Amino acid sequence: MQILEVAEGVILSRPDSFNMNQIITSGQCFRWDEIKTNVWKGVAFDTLLEIELLDDNSYLFKCTKETFYSLWYDYFDFERDYEQIKRSVSGDSFLEKAVVVGDGIRILRQDPFEMLITFIISQCSNIPKIKTNVNILCQKLGAYVEDKHGKDGYYLFPTPKALAENPELIASCGVGYRDKYIVNAARKVLTGELNLDHLRTVSREEAFDALISLYGVGRKVANCVLLFGLQHLDGFPIDLWIKKVLDKHYQGLFDTSRYNGYRGVIQQYMFYYGRTLGASYFE
DNA sequence: ATACAGGACTAAT
DNA sequence: ATTAGTCCTGTA
């Protein structure tokens, strides 16, 4: 991948395996928006970023090269070779199509606490509603960051402390019955009973067990946290869409051993393609 | 209106 | 091991 430094920021020159639209509609993140055609804005950790798709299909990251390399390079998982992953599905006709349709998907390396709370909120919900809930949560309980011009500020995702200490505010964010799950999880993280940074370093099985021990966290949510927040790339969340795909194309039995080490990436291609096919396709 | 949406819990088999 | 009923709430 060719990376150029220019006055306005950093340019990814006509990148393979990078498509903002695919990435932010693949259900892994909820704080990015296309604010106008081909311009996206999002917050990750404590930083705001704008990305623009230029006429020549290059992407402009509007940040310093220092910030690009210290934060966004890791966040967008640029070190990983997605071309190689896509080639590895050769011979599987469904996945061969999936990696063409979702050729620019990447697994974002997001904040584990944000993933835990966000995917607790996601249960039995839908993307627009999840985004609304998370945005309200950030506005009510997250720190406000002024940008250097005193306008266009933004809210950070709430800290464990903020969530643990304000149960009544959480209940007013429209998260419904999930409010108690959120408060409980935040308290466990705040006290150190659940150490998310530690879970990054242990086996996927051990991290999984620690996550599902939380009240209101089951297999699906735990796998999402593993995959999107803890870099356990073998997390394989099975949700509605994955179920549909597995039932229709794999007789419900999908052998993931072929993709050991990056099964979650395969899941993401599968999920994205399944959604583009639509529910009627699976009837 | 009543069912449903990117689950999980609990209490029953 | 599997299954039904329940949990909030916005949307259609």
UniProtKB/TrEMBL annotation:
TM ranges: none
Keyword tags: DNA damage, DNA repair, Glycosidase, Hydrolase, Lyase, Multifunctional enzyme
Keyword Hydrolase tagged: yes
EC number: 4.2.99.18
Catalytic activity: 2'-deoxyribonucleotide-(2'-deoxyribose 5'-phosphate)-2'-deoxyribonucleotide-DNA = a 3'-end 2'-deoxyribonucleotide-(2,3-dehydro-2,3-deoxyribose 5'-phosphate)-DNA + a 5'-end 5'-phospho-2'-deoxyribonucleoside-DNA + H(+)
One BP term from GO: base-excision repair
Keyword Hydrolase annotated: yes
Recorded GO MF terms: class I DNA-(apurinic or apyrimidinic site) endonuclease activity; damaged DNA binding; oxidized purine nucleobase lesion DNA N-glycosylase activity
Enzyme kind, highest EC tier: lyase
Protein name, per record: DNA-(apurinic or apyrimidinic site) lyase
Ranges for domain HhH-GPD: 120-275
Family the UniProt entry places it in: Belongs to the type-1 OGG1 family.
